[in-house]
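Chapter summary example: a protein plus 0RA.
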Amino acid sequence: MINGKLSNFYIMSEQEANVAVAEQYSANSIQVLEGLEAVRKRPSMYIGDIGERGLHHLVYEVVDNSIDEALAGYCDTVDVYINEDNSITVRDNGRGIPTGMHEKENRSALEVVLTVLHAGGKFSKDSYKVSGGLHGVGVSCVNALSDYLKAEIHREGKVFVQEYSQGKPFKPVEVVGEAEDTGTTVTFHPDPEIFQVTTVYKYDTLAARLRELAYLNKGIRLTLTDRRNLVHDVDENGNELETTHFRNDVFYSKDGLKEFVEYLDGGAERLIESPIYLETDKIIPIEIALQYNTSYTEKIYSYVNNINTIEGGTHLQGFKMGLTRTLKNYADRAGMLAKLKFDLAADDFREGLTAVVSVKVAEPQFEGQTKTKLGNGEVVSAVSQATAAALELYLEENPKEAKMIVEKVILAATARHAARKAREMVQRKTVMSGAGMPGKLADCSSRDPEVCELFLVEGDSAGGTAKQGRDRMTQAILPLRGKILNVEKAMEHRVFESEEIRNIYTALGVTVGTEEDSKALNLSKLRYHKVIIMTDADVDGSHIATLILTFFFRYMIDLIKNGYVYLATPPLYLVKKGKEEIYCWTEQQRKDATLQLGKGSDKGVFVQRYKGLGEMSAEQLQSTTMDPEKRLLRQITIENAAEAERTFSMLMGDDVPPRREFIEQNAHYANIDA
Ligand code: 0RA
C-alpha cells in the first residue's frame, strides 16, 4: 500500500538498513583496495547500498555522465530505456567517449574510462564537471557491478563497440560499422550477485529523478521508456483499444526552476502570479525561483551540482539571509512595521514559501550525517547577494505583490505568537520525565533508546492487543485515537494544541524547537530509536499512516532523516488447513499458500482476511508483525524530497480533485503490496 502512495519514499527493509550500515562501517576502517575488485567487494562504499536505492543509483551515474556532456555544450538529448530483461540503456548525442589508444595505458581511452576507477574526467582538460551522482564514482563503478555492459560509441564516422562482464572486457574495442551521428550508448545489466534484494527497476523512481534533472538543467531533453510492459490504450469511454505502446515520458523544461517551483506547488493557491526568478553566473552559477502560496508551509529545495542537498548548507543559508534582509528592509522602508508590537522572526518570512535554489560549485565540500550539506563558506555571500539584488528589483517593480508578501509575513508573525503559548505547554510537559508521560502510553522498561521501540497504533482496541503481544522490556505502545490532525491543512498552533500530537512529542522525549526555527528538533533525549507506525492493512489504515507520516515529514523531519521511522507490515491473510497455517502479505502469496496446503485444490483450505489489527490475537500480532525475529519492518527514508513534498501537499492539501484521482489510481496497490 504505502509503496503505491509514497513511491517517492525509498523504503528499505530493516535488515537491508543494517547491512548497509555495517558495510559502510567496515569499508571506512580498511585500506582502499585497488581497482574494480574493490568495488565488487565493498559496493556500498561506492553506491551507498546494494538495495533498491543502489540499484537505481547505477542509472543516475551513467545519466550524469551524459548530463556533463550536455552541460559542456555538446549534447541536448539523453534517452533512457528500461529493457525487457531489466537492463538499462542510456544514449546521448554528445561527442562520444574517445576511443583512440591511450599511450600510457596501452589500451583505448574508452576501456580506461570504463575499467579504471575515477578515470571519468581524465581526458577532458577544460571540463567543469558539475553534475555527478551523490557518490560521483563514475561509470567504471557501474561496469564493475554489472554482469553485462556494452558501450557503443558513434564517433568519427564509425561505430565502436566494447563489451564487459563484471568490469572485465571480453576483447579490445572493435569497429562494427559506420555512423553518421555522434554519441554514447551504454547498456548494462545489474549483477544479481551484488543486487540480491532486487534487480527490478521502478519506472516511477527513475522518472522522478529524470524529471528533477530536466528542471535543473533547462534545455536538455530527457526521455524514459519502459520496454517491459505494453500499455493498452483506451478510448474516451475507457474501452480497450487494439493499440498498445511502451510507457514513455519526455522531460524537458524550457524555463528551468521557474517551472520546477510551479510543479512543486501543484494545487496550492498562489499569492503572486508567477515565480520570482533569478539566474546569474557572476561569482558562481546560481539559479533560484521562489513563489508564495496561501498555505503555512515552507518548502525550500536546494541543489549543488544537481545533487539534492537534503541537509542544506551554505547556499541555503545565503538564500535565507538574502530573503530575510531584503523583505525586512522593504517592509521597514514602506512603513509597514510601524504598528507591530513584536519583532519579525526569520521563520515568518518563509511561511507559504516554495523555492528551489540550485548552485554549481567547482569543488564542493559535503558534510553532515548523509553528506548532503554544503560546507563551502564562500557560497553564503554569493547566494545572499544574488538573492538580495534580484528580490530588491522585483519588489520595486511589483509594489502590489510586494505588499501582499509583507502582509503575509506579518500574519505569520502574529500566528507565531499564538503558537508560542501552545508550544510552551508541550515543552513544559516534555521536559518533565517519567511522571509526565501520557496516560495512554504503555512504556517499556528499558531506558536504552538504542533497543527501545515505540509502536504508534491506530485505535484503542488494536492498542490493547499490541500491549498484550509486546515485549515489555523493549517495546512501548502508544494508541492513537482515530485520525490524527492533518497538519498539512492546520496552522501551527492547532498542531501543538492537538492532544494526540502532544502525546507523540512527550512519549518520544524530544523537545520542540526554537522561536527561530519551530521545526528544529532536539533528538538528544529521544527515548526510542525505532518509531513504528502500525495501522490496519486497509485503505483507512493507510490513510492514517499517511497522516502520521505527514506530521513527521513536516514537524519531525530529522526523525526520518536519521532513519528512526518505520512502517510495520501486518499480514493480510491467514491460510489454514487443519493445523497448518501460513500468513500471507500479498495476493500471490495467498494463492501459492492455498495451492500448497490444498495440494493443488482449495478443498478444506480456509482463508481468513484480516480487516484490522484488532482481528488478530495478541499472539498472532506478536509473531507476525512485532517480533523482531519474524516481522518485516520498512524503514522510511527520503529518496526524492521534492517528489515526496509534492505528494504530501497533494494528498493532504486543499485541492481535492487531484487527491481523489491519485487515490483512485493507486487504490489497487492498497491491498497487494507487501
Ligand atoms: C571525455 C572526452 C570527450 C567526451 C567524453 C569524455 C564523453 C563522456 C561521456 C559519457 C557519457 N557520454 C559521454 N560523452 C562524452 C570528448 C573529447 C573530444 O571529442 O575532444
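Key point: The chain has a mean pLDDT of 85.
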